[in-house]
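hey can u check if this looks right to u? its 763 residues, i copy pasted from the old doc so theres a chance i mangled smth
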Amino acid sequence: MTAWPRTVFFALLCWLLGSALGFAQTVPTDDREIAVWSATAEARLKQIGSALESWAHMPPDAKSLAEVRQEVQETGQRAEKCISDFGARLSSVQEKLAALGEPDTGAAADIRAARMEFENDQQGIERQLALCRLIAIGVRDLADAEAQQRRKMTSRQLLHRERNIWQIFRNLLANGPGTEPAAQLSFDAWPSLGAGAFLLAILVPISLMLGRLLQRHFPIPERGPDAPPLRRTVLVSMYSRRAPWMATLLAVISTLHISGAAPVAAIGAALLISMALAPLIHLLACKGQLRCPAGLPARLLMDLFLVAGALMLVDAERFVPEHAYLLARGLFFFALALVALWLLRKLTLREDLQTLRSLRLPVAIALLAGPCADWLGYHNLGLLLTLGVYGTAAGVRLLWLLLSLVSRVYQALDDRDNETQPRLRQWLRYEKGEQVPGIGAIAWLIRIGALVALGYWLLFTWQVSDTSFVTDILHDGFNIGAIRIVPIKLIVALLAFSILLTLSRWLSRQLSERWLTKTKLDSGARQSVVSLTSYTIIGAAILLALSMAGLDFQNLAIVAGALSVGIGFGLQNIVNNFVSGLILLFERPVRPGDWVVVGATEGYVRKISIRYTLIQTFDRAEVLVPNSELISNQVTNLMLSDSYGRVTVPVGVAYGSDTQKVREILQKAVREHPMAVLYDPQVSAPRVYFMAFGDNSINFELRFFIQNIDYKLSVRSDILFTLDQAFREAGIEIPFPQRVVHMSPGTERSDGADKKMEKPTGD
């Protein structure tokens, strides 16, 4: 060995030894750190448990509760990781001990030393694993206790009764506002009034011109007294009247915002947004009518919602004394309930809302529950019920509008077979019959996203600030018997399956319509390639989705073994047809477009699926033939190797005809036909056969091949037309069968004469 390879070898050996020694030194350090952490975590959990017991008498604030919850969650995650790591190490040590065999005093010294070392490691790992498991159990107990304590605190807060509205009103009349508000409103007159006047002078003329412009470009058409007005008529009429008022309100809002009166400006902004949305709300409530009983309460309810939202955003409670705020909130809840009940009454009078009419009483109770609780002194409960009920109603209504809009857009984009294409398809330049790729998947994704958004909106409206349980359920899942369901994995799996399924359809469409059309493959081969590609991607998508959903394929193998027994008893035909379909796609004895005869069924193969083969007869009847029949029974395929086919034309002429002339006419007729194959080494040339001297005619048969058997009947018809004309011109007679019937002498006809009757009969 030369010098430099030896040097490299020893350097590499030293590096490996150093790494091994370093690793050996780091393991005890990690074990010591975990031991220290487990002791500290155990002590800390005891402290938190003692604190939870004291919270029953003195509840903590929300911040302290969130910090404790976060600490408990982190400790639980660390404990689960400890259990996972030491569980893997324990399995490794047990495998090593199992490899050494049973303890034997007569074994070699190194084996006994190794066994002793492994047993010591096993004891240490089991001890630490037990500590981590105890910490995990303590974390779960603390989490349950913290959740129970939080529920008790929430119940105590909701059921805590303060002064009712009447007492607060009497106190305000007798003692005045009492406490000072936390913040004071400010108003700087000079810069704000100047800016407001300037905006008012500019915006009002512009709004007037805009209203006239709308009325000029969108005139109200002349319609009958019973005809409903157009939607654009309603929108133009309402927006043209509101434009000057919206401009004035915008100037006032700007003045208040510049002056520093943010809460008042927020109320003005809410009213401005209400004026902008009022025509749309009117259209939804009145179904396009200019006036209806439900229009005014719907707009008022929207005004109250927007004002309440604006006041919550600017925290208007800081600018009002406590008792005045509670009184104002009670009056606001009362007005909200009255308007909601007014709208409910108007809506139940409509004929298309019969379902809502049957739910008037429970809906009215739900609408009144929050305001009544607030008026009775349960202010926290009243606020929760009011926000929850009205927020839920608003969220469900918005969800319904969104889903309706998605359905209309989907129907407009998917209506590709209509003679008059929808405006949306015309605007996107889609031709008739052209499919919008991925529109179905996009619609479903929007629907799922809308439902998820509604769920979070409901959590917000019902003041569920702690969404950790939702996160835990989504990420950690829940058990149903022995099965653990993890929703986030299921959602990801469904999303991946939907994407791959959409990809499969798009790829199949591209292969069949674009890519494979440029190759030399026939239509049957192209469809087989498309089908196999689609089935392969779908199968991969199913396996990938099951894997992402967390399904163990070892358990799947056990389930498949159990299912095989069921398949052997009850699903033989389905499995037989499935396997036969795969054989047909790979072996291709029958292809789409072939002319086949299966038993009493004759026609063209249109589609080969996994379970059946679709055959369209010449009467355009569609026959579903199981794939197993095509594999196990006799099938006649007239187009398997090529599309050549033989046409046979039997001809009979009268006795005494010139047979050579007949032969020449037959040969000429077939030579003049453009589809007859005259010279091709693969098939024989056209032939005329003298078949027999028949009972009534001399029988000939013309046999020839054509390039496409699909035109067999039309070619045979053309030849017969040609022969009929040629025989007429040549004076050759085509006889018909005759039969002679002798009547018995004693038989009398209706005319009283015995006659010999010749009765011609034909086929």
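The chain has 22 helices and 13 strands.
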